[in-house]
Amino acid sequence: MAEKKTRVLIVGSRGRLAGSLLKYWSKSHEVTGLARPALDVSDLNSLPRILGDLEFDVLVNGTGLTNVDRCESAREEAHIVNALAPGVLAKCASQQGARLIHFSTDYVFDGKKREAYSEEDTPAPLGFYGTTKLEGEQRVLEQDARHMVVRVSWVFGPTKPSFADSLIERAMREDRVQAIEDKFSCPTSAEDTARWLEFFFESSVEGGLYHACNSGQCSWREYGEKALEFASEAGLTLRTNQVAPISLADMKQFIAPRPVFSMLSTRKLAATTGMTPRNWQEALREYIFKKYAPISSPT
Questions:
Q1: In angstroms, rounded to a whole number, what is the distance separating the alpha carbons of residues 223 and 202?
Q2: What is the pTM of this model?
Q3: Is the bond leading into 37 cis (omega within 30 degrees of zero)?
Q4: Over the stretch 260-289, which tens digit does the pLDDT of each residue have?
Q5: Helix axis angle, 280-296 relative to 220-233, nearest 10°?
Q6: Residue 114, Cβ neighbours under 10 Å: how many?
Q7: Where are the domains of the chain?
Q8: How many helices and strands in the chain, by DSSP H and E?
Q9: Is 129 one of the annotated active-site residues of the chain?
Q10: Catalytic annotation, pick one of 107, 117, 129, 223
Q11: What is the β-pairing status of strands 58-61 and 7-11?
Q12: Which CATH class for the 7-161+187-215+261-279 domain?
């Protein structure tokens, strides 16, 4: 890893993942964050002008319309933000000789496979969210070999509440909580992702498509039960530490189809960086203790 400070520009810097990257990388690099209203990626005409006035070595796209159900109804917005904007950002980065790191999703797969998906597996999105994210991937990768597409899943991090945080908050107030028991993937620590991706600040490292998540797999219910277990260990008083099962089919409010199994293989990431992602349970426990133990400690 080069010791020089890398100039990093993060767009969409208020997001869960992007905000965590900004916080982590700012310790060692020159990091700038942009978010609405300073920069709106849906305004495609303004992006080249705004980015052209800034200097950066690495451009990070932390934006995206990630509400999968909304993507089914707000199709024009989803296509602009998830598909067209990444292509414009990739071109802007190329014009500055910079690398773009763009984030995508496990939802580009249909979930019919029963082992971890690799970067070589053929995508087959079930809904419009996955369809637009896949087009965004293609637009980025065809622009410049330096650019990166990083697929992640179930991200948790310190800058914005995630599923784990929401479930813990509910368990502090309610006697019964539930989560889906028949949908499987792997949680991703935003802080671990920051450590992995810092390796790619070195311009000589190959770009391309990478999967980035912690190791292991679980259902939403298993994820939730571990979150409550760790929260209890951290000293929080919960009204329940059990997570009742519910099936994906029972979620009648869902509009978009979801892949049932979308575990991502990180062999390529580990081989490139020399960093093997740790188990999701270890990363989740560290996150929960760091966030909640100080709250539960007596003053």
A1: 34
A2: 0.95
A3: yes
A4: 999 999 999 999 999 999 999 999 999 999
A5: 40
A6: 9
A7: 7-161+187-215+261-279
A8: 11, 12
A9: yes
A10: 129
A11: parallel
A12: alpha beta
